[in-house]
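SAMPLE LOG
Freezer: B-3
Tube label: C17
Construct: single chain, 207 aa
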Amino acid sequence: MNDKPKFEVIDRRKKKAEEEQEGQRQPAPPAESAPPQPAPGGGPRLVVNESKSEARREPAPAATTKVVPGAETEVPPPPTAQESREQKKAYDASAQRLEDMVRAQNPAAGAPPQMSFEHLVQQFYVSAMIQMGAGTQEGQRPRVDILGARTTIDLLGILAEKTKGNLTEAEDKTLQTVLFELRMAFLELTNMITAQGIQPPPPPKRA
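STRUCTURE (predicted):
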């Protein structure tokens, strides 16, 4: 039995076109079967406890390719230059509308900082340190996700490998320093865990 995780790559452009064609071929559903509309002003809705009948009516994703790690796979074609430009333009406009809403509610707030490579590295650093128990309030037991921390550190290592030769001196120094500190913290923590060993569960209490 193959226990390797499987992923799906979805070509959203092809899926959207097929959904539009399918909607033109099928008649509109009766009014009584239409799903309830969200209240005005509502944001994205999280759906929980979906019934089995609703799950069966959900169409299967179109244009999907199952990806098995380590195997040669096919992926959807990349977007064209025009598609990328249009999407970037729409993304910037949407982000600007969101920023205007936030600043209207809080006029004292300044403009958000421009994202940089240092921000990306810092995000990895903070995530890994939290996974290794940093930031725990005094008096509370640290919650450690050592496997998650390893994944985050390995991702940062991949970033260092793939960007080699394309970074400024300051960016490379920041990346290498952060990666060194995270690996040292991981090494110290794993040494503590392995030294303690796996403790047996406590004996059951007698009635």
